[in-house]
Every structure is written in C-alpha cells, then in structure tokens.
Amino acid sequence: MNPGVQIDHTDRIGEIKVLLEAHDEEGLLRLLGTLHASDIGRALAGRAGLAGRAGLAGRAGLAGLDEEQAVEVFKRLSPELASEVLLEIDERLRKSLISSITSEELIEVVQELETDDATDIISELPVEDAKQVLEGIEEKDSIALQKLLVYPEDTAGGKMQAELVSVAESATVEEGIEEVRRKGREMENLSSVFVVDAGGRLTGVVQLNKLIIAEPRSRMKEIAEADPVKVTADLDQEEVAKIFQKYDLIALPVVDADGRLVGRITIDDVVDVIEEEIFEDFYKMAGLNLEERVLDAPARSIWMRLPWLLINLATAFLAASVVRVFQGTIEKLVILAVLMPIVAGMGGNAATQTITVVVRGLALGELSLNNARWFIIKEMLVGLANGLMTGVVATVAAYLLGANILVGLLLFLGMTANLVIAGLSGAFIPIILKWFKVDPAISATVFVTTCTDIGGFLSFLGLATLFMRAGIL
Amino acid sequence: MNPGVQIDHTDRIGEIKVLLEAHDEEGLLRLLGTLHASDIGRALAGRAGLAGRAGLAGRAGLAGLDEEQAVEVFKRLSPELASEVLLEIDERLRKSLISSITSEELIEVVQELETDDATDIISELPVEDAKQVLEGIEEKDSIALQKLLVYPEDTAGGKMQAELVSVAESATVEEGIEEVRRKGREMENLSSVFVVDAGGRLTGVVQLNKLIIAEPRSRMKEIAEADPVKVTADLDQEEVAKIFQKYDLIALPVVDADGRLVGRITIDDVVDVIEEEIFEDFYKMAGLNLEERVLDAPARSIWMRLPWLLINLATAFLAASVVRVFQGTIEKLVILAVLMPIVAGMGGNAATQTITVVVRGLALGELSLNNARWFIIKEMLVGLANGLMTGVVATVAAYLLGANILVGLLLFLGMTANLVIAGLSGAFIPIILKWFKVDPAISATVFVTTCTDIGGFLSFLGLATLFMRAGIL
After folding, report:
1. How far apart are the C-alpha atoms of B410 and B416, rounded to whole Å?
2. What torsion, rounded to 10 degrees, do the Cα atoms B328, B329, B330, B335 define?
3. Which residues in chain A are closer than 8 Å to B394, comparing Cβ atoms?
4. Under a CB-based contact definition with an 8 Å cutoff, are residues A65 and A47 in contact?
5. Per-residue confidence of chain A (473 residues) as pLDDT tens digits?
6. CA distance A93 to A68
7. Mind telling me how many Å the CA of B50 is from chain A's nearest CA?
8. Distance between CA B453 and CA B445 in Å, rounded?
9. CA A95: distance to chain centroid?
10. What residue of A is the nearest CA neighbor of B450?
11. Which of A3, A361, B240, B260 is deepest in the core (most CB within 10 A)?
C-alpha cells in the first residue's frame, strides 16, 4: 500500500489527462506517485471502459482517459504499482494493458504480486504467454504458482496464497520469531503463524501478538491454539466465506486431503467473495448474468439479458392463455379487463417481498429445511392479512371510481386469494428448489410470478364467471 | 475462540434438547463445552425464534429449543461463552436472555466483551439497567464505554473499539514490543501498532510482522508507515466499509477532529456492514424493511410490508385508469385484453434487470454522474434491441395461437416501445434520485414499474385505437 495515501481523494482523471496531453512527463510521474493503485485503476477504466468503447464523447473535463491514454499511463508505472493497478480493473482492460507491455515487463509485474493474485492473472493469459511467464520468473515461485493454478478459481485453493509462515511443533518461540523475520519481510496481512507436525500436517495456529508475548524458550506446540479452524483446498468459496464470518477470522489455513498445510486465505480476498455471492443471488432473481457490469458494451448486455426475457415471454403467454379462457366473460364486462392487472400485479409485488426475504434468509443460514414449514405457513398468513387489508382499500377505490359493488367484491376476493398464493409460492418454491439442490434464486422468480399471474387472472376472472353463471353479476 | 472447534458441525439442537429433558446436567455442560458460540446461538434461536413465538409444533427431533429451554441453556454458560453467544442472536432473544440473568451476572458478561460489542449491548438495555452495568464494571472500562456510547451505531465511532496498542513516535521498537506484551495479551485480531505524537495525534502505523523484524533500538517513527489511512469517528459505516475494501485493510484507526487517535475498527466488524448494506439495497427495491428477518412473527411482517403494498396499489390503479381510457377499444376487440398484460409484464422484467444493474453499479462506484448519460443511452439501446427480438417472437407466437396479423404487429410495436421505456426509466430514475440525494433503491421500483405499466398499456392500446380509427383494424 502506498503510505502517503489520504482518504479524501477526488477524481484525478482530468488532471492525468491534462498532463498527458501537455506531455508533462515529470508532472505526470509526480502525480502518479501520490495516487493509490485503486485511484489509478479507476482513472484508467474511466473512459477506456466507457465512451472509449461506445464512441460517445463527454465534456473534456468530465470524460476519462481513452484506451490509448490508459496504455500510456500504465507503461509509466513501476512494476509494483502496475501489479496493484492490474488487480483493480476489469478483465478486458487488464488484457489490453498487459498486451501493451513486453513479456519481460510482464514477468517483472507478476513477480511483484502475491501468489493468489499472480495465479488469477496468469490464468487469464493465452497459454503461450502463460508458459513464457512461468518460465521467466524464479523457479521457486514458478513451482508455487503451478501448484496453485490447478485449483478452480472459485474454491479455497483458488483463493489461497502460498505466502505463509509455518513452524515445526517442536521449534521454540525464538525460532518461530526468527522464521517470521526470514519470511515475513515482504508479506502483507501476516497476522498468525501456522504450526505443523513432522509430516507437514497443520496442528495449530499462533497469533502474532501471542507469539510476541510468549516466553522465548517455550515450544511452539505449547503456545499454539490446537486443532484450529481449517478448510480443504476443494471447498467452494461461498463456504469459505461463511466460515470466515462464523468464526470472525482474518486468516484461514488450507490443507490437502491428508491435512498437510498448502496455503492461506486472508480476509481481504474473502470480502469480495461475500459481496459477489450476495449480488449473484439478486442478479439471478432479475435474470442477469453476474458477469454483466455497468460499463459493458451494449451488445454484451443485450445478449446476456435476452434468454431471461424469452423465458419470461413464455410464462407471460402462459398467463395470457388463462385470460383467453375467460375472453367471453371479459366481453360481457370490460371493466374486468381494466381491474385484472391490479390483481396480478399486487400478487407479483407481494411474491417479490417473500422471495427477497427467503433469499436473504437462506444466504444467512436463518432459513433451513428445519423451519421451512413454519415459514411457509407464516407467509400464507402474511399474504392473507395483507390481501384482506389491501383488498378492502382496492374495493373502496374501485367503487369510488364508479365500479359496481359486486365487481368491487370480486376485486377484494381476487386480491386476497392471490396474495395467499403469492405467500405460498414465494416461500414454497425457493425452498423446494433448495431441497432439490437447484439454485433457489435463479429459478424462483420465473415460477413464482407465473403462479401469481395465473393465480390472479384465474381467481378474479374465474370468480367473475361463476358470479355470472349464478346470475348475480 | 474455542480452540477445539472443527468446521463440520451438524445441528446440535436435538442433542441439547434431549439432554435438557433428561436433566443430564453433566452431559449438557460437556456438550456445550465442545460447541462454538455461533452454534449455541443458532440452537438457542432455533425454536425460541420460531414455533416458540408462533405456537406451531414440529417433530421433536427436528424442532429447536423453546424460549424457556433457551434460558436454561444460557444460564449454564460461562460468562465468556455467554458474552459471545449474545453477539450471535437477534435483539429480541438477546433481551429475553439478558432479562433472565441477575445484574451481577450481566456485569460479568459485559466485562468479557470487547468495547465495541459491549457498547452495542448496553445501548439496547433500559436506561436504569445500563446505568447499573456502567457503575458495576471497572471504572477504567466504564469511562471507555461511556465515550463510545456517544457515537451513533452506524458511524465509524459506533463500530470502533477502544482496545488498541499505541506507542509514542520517539519510543524504541523494543518499547513498542513491550507495549504489545502489556496490552496485547487479551486482544483478538491485533495486527498492527499505532504510532502517535506527543499530542496523541496519529502519525503512523506499524504492522506486527514489521515490528518483529525491526532492529530493537530503532525508533518507532523510523519504521512506521507515515500518514496512514484513517477516518474520523463521525464517518458513515458505508463509507468505512468502502475504505476497507479500497485499501484491503484489516484494521483502520479512527481519529477525532484534531487527528487524535480514539479507536480502531477491525475488518470482522466491517464484513457484516458490507453484507447489510447490499441486502439493504435489494430489500428497499422489494419494499421491505431491513429489520425484517425470516424468523419474525407474522404480525410484524404484515405491518412492515403493508405500506409498500398500499403504495403499489395506488400505482396499479393509476395504470388501470390508463386501461380504462381504452375500454371502448377493448370492447371492440377482446383479444387486446388477453395480450396487454404481456406487454406490461415484459417491460417490468426488463426494467428490473436495468435497476438491478444500476443498484450494483452505484454500490460498487462503477456508475457515477460522470458516465450516467452514456449508461442511459446504452440501456435504451439494449431495450430497443431486446424489444425487437422478443417482439418478433411474441408476434409469431400470437399468430400461431390464432391472433390477427395486425394484432401481432401491435404486440410487436408495443413490446419494443415498452422495452425502450423500461431501459430509459430503469436507468434514468435511479440516477436522478441519486442526483437529488434520495436513496435510489427505495423509490426507483415504484416509479419505474409505474412507467412500464402505463407505457405498456398506453403504447399497445393506444396504437390499437389509432389503427381502429384509421380503419385498418
């Protein structure tokens, strides 16, 4: 981290742009020296990700750098700063910046990175380039990276780094401190030392502050927390994040199938996972691909959203076919066509509330198959109560707007029925999907809104038809 | 943290229940000794939060503890474990458990907590009880807590703890290590030492591993990272979380208006904030109160969700009044009533996609007023393209289902128009709300879906009316 950083940075894109265009080499280097990698990354992405791609221009002061200018700035960064900037930008800009430097420069940049970040960058390179980098860096580092490259990106193995301090159980505290001196010089976020047995199996953890406090001649084994929380390398990143939160960890050791220590995950890498997983749930609910970002080109967004819209179109036709059954009823009383979207829409809104509560409850582990039955009944009760109350309001409103009192009664009955359907389907469907190990967020909304659309039309128009047959409407 | 913890805990509620009912005191204490606070918290909340409140029974094996049993278990915990369990449960259960112990016991429990957690618990107590606790604990702790109690819960001051190690600039590394020895014994997550000048103003930070490595007789000032990232106590917690993520921090010093060090925030407290803020956005989108949880009693959920449903009802009537204008058109051609929900529904789905992307973009800082114009145009393009494509599919489907080709054309035009409206309103409205400093998540969905409902009905039925007037339909 840049030590001179203050928290009150304003947007420096304009400043960089002016210096670049004035060819003020010295001023540019001075400015870059005062900025944090994340600010530089933002400046580089500013326009390269935006108008640079879409061909839309903004006012000079507000617009960012174009891709050519981004490359110009990137080339002037030290390998250390360049390596940090690469971690702050999106994959596409990263590819473009990497392709602008020589493979020797890239090797220098990769050597500045922690192993977990280096692995991420190398795995994005074309095979030939990746090979060249792995051959170019120090052999020790290359071997470490090749071991890490085996693990899928979204597992504990993919998130871990090889940089860690481990000490034998039998070593003294003095020797442990010596090991921290030897290895800890260049490490960020080193908060604990791992203790291993003769076979390399993890048996304990010592926090650095406890290590400092301990009697120098005591054994590591004596002062270690025995049987520490640990994970295997193949564990999914979402589970890893849950363990960090459950035990309030800042670092977590990773072991292989035999319990041998292979790496360490630090919390700063997990924070992004936690954020990503929550956004993923809600993206799925809206039928979005998590890969889609604000700055994506229009064509990319179009193709990513189209499949979901087509699925929704199919379910919309399904609901419309229900309306079609009651075409004759509507013909006799057109006000039904005016009011029926209210019944369906209110069901959809109530169902969205229920699904959102379910998604959060499942994510936080508050909702499980143990309490599912209770929750489903609760949601039906909530739907019934709110259906009765909003139904009364709707009926009065319809009456004031000139609708027949019997039509008002239909509206009341239809809304109440549909809000119960919303509560039932909004709670039951995600839970049953979870039971069958299908992702509850992605498929729930399609099924549930289909239920409330069909439920709304069926209850409102169906009751109207019955009323008509009975001769009271 | 309990050192014996493994990560493969299964649900132990049943086991606790059986031991409680068998009055197996010894077995119960043994079992509780092997469990982590978060598992005990979950067991206590299991049923007290559920059937215990709702009066619904489950099968004995699966059901959790009722509130009385939760109290029985809680009373048997050591002050240390009890203090950790209190942090794992919701406010209501916490109140009930706290009221089951004597004020002497509560004082013991509070003394086990870190100052930030103790502050949270004390601020929930009735004033008299809070006073009693503050008078009962050690004077030094009491003063520290009273200082922290001043800050609102959702600020840096509310999240910080008073436990930290600070050393004078002029002190030697040896003296710095001595200070860690003195104060760091009972501290969790101590990863760095703060360096202050003679006036108590923060001037630097030293990571513990750097402290261990340093030459014992060098001065703290020489080895410290100067001018470190810091925040003032009044900063909003959302901003604090952003700073942690931007600089990959695990601890952040908090200073007062004069730059004097007053506390420290650790990342484990920030992770919950990050999670909460994201859920808050999506809860607002669905018209939910963030306070609502899966385990809430039905009555609470009913009242919390009703206001939003009423607002939606009002907007649904607004949309219905548009349909009413075209009642005559529908009377002449009832198939319009069958197809019109498709047009409105597809607009709503496309708008939800856009709003979700906007909420994430604003949360991650990728979308700003700088690139807003570009984004709005992009979303309209995406709407246009997907409107044309889904419109074609819809037209063919309607034709195959027996609709007139002209009605199919209306469907095509209506859907295309409404998906452009969805892109425009879905992007423009949240951004303009942000501009006016209104929370973009909360109000966007109401406005936007009203736009797509009205837009859908207006374009589809309006065009149909024009076609009829022109005599082509």
Report:
1. 10
2. 160
3. 313, 317
4. yes
5. 333 333 333 456 778 888 888 898 899 988 888 888 888 887 887 643 333 333 333 333 334 577 888 899 999 999 999 999 999 888 888 998 999 999 999 999 999 998 999 999 999 999 999 999 999 999 988 999 999 999 998 999 999 999 999 999 999 999 999 999 888 777 877 889 999 999 999 999 999 988 988 899 999 999 999 989 999 999 999 899 989 988 888 899 999 999 999 999 999 889 888 888 889 888 888 888 888 888 888 999 999 999 999 999 999 999 999 999 999 999 999 999 999 999 999 999 999 999 999 988 888 878 887 788 999 999 999 999 999 999 999 999 999 988 899 999 999 999 999 999 999 999 999 988 888 877 777 667 888 989 999 999 999 999 999 999 999 88
6. 11
7. 7
8. 12
9. 22
10. A345
11. B240
Query: B153 in helix, strand or coil?
Result: coil
What does the block give as tokens for A230?
């640990």
Of the candidates A56, A244, A390, the beta carbon closest to that of B310 is on A390
The pTM (predicted TM-score) of the whole model is: 0.80
Q: What is the largest CA-CA distance in chain B?
A: 97
ipTM of the prediction: 0.79
Amino acid at B99: S
Locate B135 and state its tokens.
């008078």
Domains of chain B: 13-155 (1.25.60.10), 166-282 (3.10.580.10), 298-469 (1.10.357.20)
Q: Which residues of B touch A247 (CB under 8 A)?
A: 1, 5, 36, 38
- Cα-based distances in Å from B222 to A14, A182, B194: 35, 20, 13
Q: Do A378 and B54 touch (CB under 8 A)?
A: yes
Angle, helices B267-285/B440-469, rounded to nearest 10 degrees: 20
Q: Locate the chain A residue with the closest alpha carbon to B332.
A: A331
